[in-house]
Amino acid sequence: MNKNGMVTEIHTKIRKEPFTANYELLGKELGRGKFAVVKKCTEKATGKQYAAKFLRKRRKGADCRMDIFNEIAVLELAKANPYVVGLHEVYETNSEIILVLECAAGGEIFHQCVADNDEAFTEKDVIRLAKQILNGVAFLHRNSVVHLDLKPQNILLTSARPLGDIRIVDFGLSRTMDKITEVREILGTPEYVAPEILNYEPISTATDMWSIGVLIYVMLTGESPFLGDDKQETFLNISQVNIDYSQDTFEGISSLAVDFIKSLLVKNPRKRATAEECLNHPWLNPHSHPHLHTMSACSLDEPEMSQSESEPESPDPSPE
Ligand code: ADP
Ligand code: MG
């Protein structure tokens, strides 16, 4: 039986031969979540490196094969977008399904979010990365997919130094909007969930936009805006939209950035900015503050976009 909003029709061939016949595991664990371990590996035929995500089919006694197919289906759908992690192959054993993914060697943006000054993102970095995140999320939303677990652990980098491009990962909670009627079973990570999730109200693409507001806040300030001493306090802070926009917290950060975050951390989902609106916000527009957009940052912006996707920017922004 399908759960609401899940797509389970997939086109990728499910390989039944042993994974290790075609890949060499490099031992190095790239990360792990509740039901998955991700390890670096090399494809024997090509010598190319990938990230293998090992997903257990049974979780808490329940068969979760359809949840994994949903994750695969979303990755297939998003193949055309450069900011969603690429899916190379899929293997299945008695107990696991293995997703062979493009390796995002720079790791989670989480590390730079909590880092000290010399390793932390500058506002210029955040502007470039925010555009990429929004480009990926706008693509998902245009295709009626909501991610529902956007947080710094699920946004990876192609390289950390020099700072590369982002890749969105972890579509384990993703749902298709046109098929959702019930959402009570889905819950993301406390600090990043939108008020409507806490109130068991309908989710929508706006639910992701709240999480992006939290994400950008953390990337700029290094602080998690709603985090309380315990879950209850965090949930209370979220439902009251109790948030610190003080000069102290935003020292050295432009007022356009604060304005941008404020357009997302709005309790009423219908009044929240959409991904497309965010991409048109002056904070992400070089003409609004040329000193935050250098030529090199602009030319790195959208590396391999198809024509229909790209909106070329002037490489030499003239001051207004
Ligand atoms: P979970 O659903 O268990 O959270 P994720 O897909 O988020 O699984 O993977 C867990 C962690 O593994 C990520 O937070 C990240 O650190 C690492 N990881 C996942 N995919 C990749 C990848 N393609 N390249 C590099 N590291 C990855
Ligand atoms: Mg994850």
UniProtKB/TrEMBL annotation:
Query: What top-level branch of life does the organism fall under?
Result: Eukaryota
| Entry's Gene Ontology molecular function annotations | kinase activity
Q: Which InterPro entries match?
A: Kinase-like_dom_sf (IPR011009), Prot_kinase_dom (IPR000719), Protein_kinase_ATP_BS (IPR017441), Ser/Thr_kinase_AS (IPR008271)
Where does the Protein kinase domain start and stop, copy by copy?
24-284
Secretion signal, residue range per the UniProt entry:
none
Q: Which Pfam families match?
A: Pkinase
Q: TM segments?
A: none
Would you identify the family this protein belongs to, as annotated?
Answer: Belongs to the protein kinase superfamily.
User: Which PANTHER family does its entry note?
Assistant: SERINE/THREONINE-PROTEIN KINASE 17 (PTHR24342), SERINE_THREONINE KINASE 17A-LIKE (PTHR24342:SF16)
Q: Which protein are we looking at? A: Serine/threonine-protein kinase 17A
| Lineage start | Eukaryota, Metazoa, Chordata, Craniata, Vertebrata
